[in-house]
From TrEMBL:
It holds the Pfam family CARD. InterPro entries: CARD (IPR001315), DEATH-like_dom_sf (IPR011029). Coiled coil: none annotated. It comes from the Eukaryota. The lineage of its organism: Eukaryota, Metazoa, Chordata, Craniata, Vertebrata. It comes from Seriola lalandi dorsalis. Residues 1-84 form the CARD domain. This is CARD domain-containing protein. One of its GO terms (biological process) is regulation of apoptotic process. Gene3D superfamilies: Death Domain, Fas.
Length: 84
């Protein structure tokens, strides 16, 4: 799991993170406040870490939804992370 997180922090791209955040907000996995906090972050790695930490705190179902959304958005990254 730690390797997957490390790779996500390193390999995710800003547009993918933004799409993931938008989808998480749309599906009410994260709040408007969560989205705004992440959106203000300029550092991609910090934003990715914030997304992971925020969603993980919301439980297993939220984490599963995030993985599903990520795989829809960037299947290549998901395959690289071993999520597919």
């Amino acid at each position: 799991m730690m390797k997957t997180i490390h790779l996500f922090l390193k390999e995710s791209k800003k547009p993918v993170l933004q799409s993931l955040l938008d989808k998480l907000l749309e599906k009410k996995v994260i709040t408007d406040s969560d989205w705004e906090s992440a959106d203000e972050m300029q550092n991609k790695r910090n934003k990715a870490r914030f997304v992971i930490d925020t969603v993980r705190k919301k439980g297993e179902a939220a984490s599963s939804e995030m993985i599903e959304f990520l795989c829809e958005t960037d299947p290549f990254l998901c395959e690289h992370l071993g999520l597919l």
